[in-house]
Write a structure and sequence with these properties.
The chain is an alpha/beta fold and 386 residues long. It folds into 2 domains: 106 residues, Immunoglobulin-like; 251 residues, 3-Layer(aba) Sandwich (Rossmann fold). Helix content is 33%, strand content 20%. The chain has 10 helices and 14 strands. Strands 9-8-12-13-14 form a 5-stranded parallel sheet, with helices on both faces. Strand 6 and strand 7 form a beta hairpin. Helix 3 crosses helix 10. The chain is elongated and about 90 Å long.
């Protein structure tokens, strides 16, 4: 072979080697004393908080290699100083923000640990500003809005965020989080709202007009942080309020428990229009959930209604006494079934129907009293923080 031919051949080999894509030439793993290879992280993506994430946690997407298999991932935050190293499972790794501050610039580093304990180099996974504190939205009807009324001749307070169980939810959840991450709280509920009014807006019993609760939530729910929606709605999509008014009149003129029980049975089975409204309630519930899931990253907690038999309208008088327990449980079961039929698997159902919630007396009956709102709020908060 001539010298010229040899040079040309070498040039062709060089061109072919240079044409191999850079991504196809992976750097060889580091050889370790026992013949093992150190794991290598290829990429990491930190995702924004999603509806399935618990508070202050977010998902990571990690690509990594190891010849024997990766046992776990580890991460640390870098601010003024690195935080403690935390472990993550290989399947569905998540990071927690509880060691850092909200709205503050940090870096995130991730490494892989293989089954033999060998660690990869720290990988610079993310640099940026941490999310703002979470927001808890309370929506729905008068149970959620903080409705209260003392005397039949006086005015009612239709919306009171501080009186509502929502304030207890906020405080109880905040007690489980670092102080800096205490959640914000917004109450968009109003009395009289059925599922249609939650979607489209309407008027309350104080003659105030309200817009769509869903629209208000969608406008305020920041996609970069955690959002929670607590909902109570459905009963005002029936004529239950009128049924209860008639029932209290009937029991007031009844002189024996058997008469009260009969009045309760008539009220539930003949006067209540749930059967004709059932499909609308289910469809409206499904539309509410779909709108929240489509327009926000919020987790939804739907609270049931509570039993009102045995609660006092005036000292010593319960218009729906314990003798009506079967009829009231039946009514709650039917209503809750219509609501739950519209919920998907992503919604957490908070069951209150076994609770005897303390109620306001006189004109505020059967809405929760201060203690009643506290009991409801603590139950919902427990569902949120586990």
């Amino acid at each position: 072979m001539s010298r010229r031919t040899g040079i040309v051949s070498l040039m062709l080999v060089g061109l072919l080697v240079g044409a191999v894509p850079a991504f196809a030439v992976a750097p060889p793993g580091e050889q370790l004393p026992d013949g093992d290879v150190r794991p290598v992280i290829r990429s990491v993506e930190l995702l924004q908080p999603a509806s399935h994430n618990v508070l202050l946690e977010a998902d990571l997407l990690i690509e990594a290699d190891d010849n024997d298999g990766i046992e776990r991932y580890e991460y640390r935050w870098n601010g003024a100083a690195p935080t403690a190293i935390e472990a993550m499972p290989v399947e569905d790794p998540v990071v927690s923000y509880d060691a850092v501050l909200p709205d503050t610039r940090y870096g995130l580093q991730v490494r892989a640990v293989d089954v033999n304990g060998w660690e990869s180099e720290w990988y610079p996974a993310w640099t940026g500003v941490t999310p703002s504190p979470p927001t808890i939205f309370v929506a729905g009807d008068s149970i959620a809005s903080g409705y209260s009324r003392m005397w039949f001749t006086g005015d009612a307070t239709c919306t009171d965020a501080a009186y509502s169980f929502g304030s207890t939810v906020r405080d109880a959840v905040a007690a489980e989080l670092p102080v800096a991450w205490a959640p914000r709280y917004a109450n968009v509920a109003f009395p009289g709202a059925g599922v249609g009014a939650v979607l489209n807006g309407g008027s309350d019993s104080c003659s105030a007009t309200h817009g769509s609760q869903i629209e208000a939530i969608a406008q305020a729910a920041a996609p970069t942080t955690w959002n929670i929606v607590v909902m109570t709605a459905g009963i005002n999509s029936t004529n239950w309020v009128d049924v209860v008014k008639d029932l209290t009149r009937d029991t007031a003129f009844s002189l024996k428990d058997s008469g009260d029980k009969e009045a309760c049975e008539v009220a539930v089975t003949r006067r209540w229009n749930l059967d004709s409204r059932r499909s609308d309630i289910t469809a409206g519930t499904a539309a509410i959930v779909d709108a929240i899931e489509t327009r926000t990253n919020a987790s939804v907690y739907w609270a049931s209604y509570f039993a009102i038999d045995g609660s006092l309208l005036a000292p010593g008088w319960s218009p729906i006494g314990p003798e009506c327990e079967d009829e009231m449980r039946y009514a709650l079961g039917e209503l809750h079934g219509a609501i739950q039929a519209g919920l998907d698997g992503e919604v957490t159902w908070v069951d209150l129907d076994a609770m005897h919630v303390p109620t306001q007396m006189w004109a505020g009956w059967p809405h929760p009293s201060v203690e009643g709102h506290r009991e409801i709020g603590l139950t919902i908060a427990e569902a949120i923080v586990g």
